[in-house]
Amino acid sequence: MKPKLFLIVAFSFLLPSASLRAQEGDPRQRARAVRDLAKQGDDSIPKLAPYIGDPDTSVRVEAVKALIEIGGPKTLDGLLRAAADNDAEVLIRATDGLVNVYLPGYVKTGISGSLSRTGAAVRAKFSDTNDQVIDPFVQVRPEVITALGKLARGGSAMESRTNAARALGVLRGRAAVPDLIEALRSKEGKLMYESLVAIQKIGDPSAAPRISFLLRDLQEMIQVTALETTGLLRNREAEPQVREALQDARTIKVRRAALAALAMLAVPVDRTIFQTYLQDKDDLVRAASAEGLGRLKNSADRATVQQAFTGERGMNPRLSAAFALVSLGDVSAGRYGPLQYLMNTLNQRAWRGVASAFLIELSHDPAIRQAFYPILSTATKDEKIQMSIILARAGDKDSVPSLETLSKDPDPDVAAEGIRSLRTLRARLP
């Protein structure tokens, strides 16, 4: 062997590989090394790779936390490796980290912060608020959806599976719908609930027939959510089962959900049901009944719905009656008319979500959309911002001029939302 080559080979044996260096010392030293690397930013991402496969769980947890702290698309490969781990905490943190890349700030509201650990057992607290979702123009790497789908279908711990199901909803992971359907067969309430909500967010109508077996589930939360999902996905084939659920409802929550689902399905045979329940003592039951009549679009019901709108004192049923009237053709711009009432409600933080959902649905009708545009010129700041979001989700090519105007609004907040909504709309248009 030549002297120079011999020295190179000898030196290579003396210099430990990155993988070996990652496992030197005790776990506390390696965890400390990981935290130090996190402070170096993007440049440290390759150096963190060996720690993702560290034999000690605490070190792997620190490695995932470091990747999340650094953030950005460059961390995806490392987080995907961690999403195949066998420890629940690592899996939960990796899942939240993956979502955080596409929805910055998600880790602050995800379940990572509520984790508690006793030995190998991990517990997490899932909040009731689950309304986050990425913008339609955000493109998620297919490998991320595949990894999360695999985890939701059969992860090592129920908490990590449940968290993965929630993440799939946030990321609109349509390709993982079969995995979510499989998760529904787990008989674990939290996982089933999160899977149903994810299916709602994804909005794939082909999933609807595959959740029908839950419409009579014995768990109230699951039955209610399955009914909601059936309505949102407009599965009219399930109408007989939904009607049976209404007739056999064991609780007021089930009755409300079943009637709301029927209202979404809007099958003419249910018109009598809506007319009957429009006089019910429960606000939400009356609200669903009004919505059902509005979606049926039978002009003979307009006087009845007008009477309900005028006489209602409950906010929910009054908003529903306003929606129904507009759906039935009342698009007058009068100060006290139903369309203006829905628009005005966008100024109320507590109720704007309800009004916005109705306006999104109404915006799919070109004739109703045309009634919106003139009102925008005199709208308040909150109305302009919310209408930008509404038109982004349900508008069409005729909405572009109005959004362009809003994108140049003197108010910087209105202009920023106008720009974002215009981008969302253009991403939706063919």
Task: Tell me the β content.
Answer: under 5%
Give the overall average pLDDT.
90
Tell me the number of strands: 2
* Shape type: globular
**Radius of gyration, CA atoms, in whole angstroms:** 26 Å
Q: Note the run of SSEs as H and E.
A: HHHHHHHHEEHHHHHHHHHHHHHHHHH
Helix content: 55-70%
Low-confidence stretches: 1-22
In the sheet with the most strands, the strands line up as: 1-2
Instruction: Specify the biggest β-sheet.
Output: 2 strands, antiparallel
How many angstroms separate the termini?
A: 67 Å
Short description:
By secondary structure, the chain is mainly alpha-helical. It is 63% helix and 1% strand.
Question: How does this structure look, described?
Answer:
The chain has 25 helices and two strands. The longest helix is centred in the C-terminal third of the chain and has 17 residues, at 412-428. It has a domain at 331-430. A two-stranded antiparallel ribbon has the order 1-2. Strand 1 (116-118) and strand 2 form a beta hairpin. 63% of the residues lie in helices and 1% in strands. The model is unreliable at 1-22 (pLDDT under 50). Helix 3 (27-38) packs parallel to helix 5, helix 11 (177-183) runs antiparallel to helix 12 and helix 14 (239-247) runs antiparallel to helix 15.
Sequence-ordered SSE layout with sheet pairings:
Blueprint: H1 3-14, H2 18-22, H3 27-38, H4 45-52, H5 57-70, H6 76-82, H7 88-102, H8 106-109, E1 116-118, E2 121-123, H9 142-154, H10 158-170, H11 177-183, H12 189-202, H13 220-232, H14 239-247, H15 252-265, H16 271-277, H17 283-296, H18 302-311, H19 315-327, H20 338-345, H21 352-362, H22 366-376, H23 381-394, H24 400-406, H25 412-428
Antiparallel strand pairs: 1-2
Helix pairs in contact: 3-4, 3-5, 4-5, 5-7, 6-7, 7-10, 9-10, 9-11, 10-12, 11-12, 12-13, 13-15, 14-15, 15-17, 16-17, 17-19, 18-19, 19-20, 19-21, 21-23, 23-25, 24-25
